[in-house]
Amino acid sequence: YNVEPRLKFNPDDLFLYAVTDSGMNRKWGRPMTDAVEAAIKGGATIIQLREKEMKTQEFIQTAKACMEVCQPHKIPLLINDRVDVALACNADGVHVGQSDMQAHTVRALLGPGKIIGVSCKTVAQAEKAWMDGADYIGCGGVFPTNTKKDNITIGLEGLKEICLASKLPVVAIGGIGIGNANLVMEIGMKNLKGVAVVSALFDKENVEGEARKLRSVLERVFCSV
Ligand code: TZP
Ligand code: MG
């Protein structure tokens, strides 16, 4: 299989990684596209549509609409789990977990120009992601979170261990927000490129304002190391 890749991916895009949750956005009475646009205006550098319940056709329509929002800003849009949805909307890539399609199969289906991310909790999983031709890994949950049930927490120690062991760029996820993003970035790993957040943006009334605050926390740490 194809292990070339990495044609298009800029690891700095992981800096402020916004992961959607349509349930949260529904609660705040706004369409996904508005929430995505607000996140981008506040400084999000990449968007992932993570929709576990959405039916296929609605997911494709939502993804196409979000592509229209992201493209003028040159912000990559990734799809969680669903390679078919990513192909249907010509998304910039796919993010898979450990029980989803393997990254080398995703690569074979998407080709070298797309971004592939893999969720990893262990060094062995990170090693496999590298072998499979992934572009980055998402590591967590770093802190406890209500967003993902049954999620085992790896802590800052687990995050650091994976960063040290992997050649891939890393984005940290799980329970991260404006109150603790500095602690994550301050572990001082040079391949730790950013934080991925769901509720810190999308379970808030003012998505743009929260994104701006989080971005300034990240920039402060980034400038001081
Ligand atoms: N993977 C590990 S933790 C998590 C995912 C998708 C949920 C993160 O959500 P939040 O609201 O940023 O804690
Ligand atoms: Mg998954």
Automatic annotation (TrEMBL):
Assigned keywords, A-Z: ATP-binding, Chloroplast, Kinase, Magnesium, Metal-binding, Multifunctional enzyme, Nucleotide-binding, Plastid, Thiamine biosynthesis, Transferase, Transit peptide
Domain (Thiamine phosphate synthase/TenI) ranges: 16-201
GO terms of biological process kind: thiamine biosynthetic process; thiamine diphosphate biosynthetic process
GO molecular function: ATP binding; hydroxymethylpyrimidine kinase activity; metal ion binding; phosphomethylpyrimidine kinase activity; thiamine-phosphate diphosphorylase activity
Cellular component per GO, a single term: chloroplast
Keyword Metal-binding among UniProt keywords: yes
Annotated coiled-coil segments of the chain: none
Family classification: Belongs to the thiamine-phosphate synthase family.
Protein name: Putative thiamine biosynthetic bifunctional enzyme
Gene source species: Carex littledalei
Region of the whole protein represented: 327 to 551 of 552
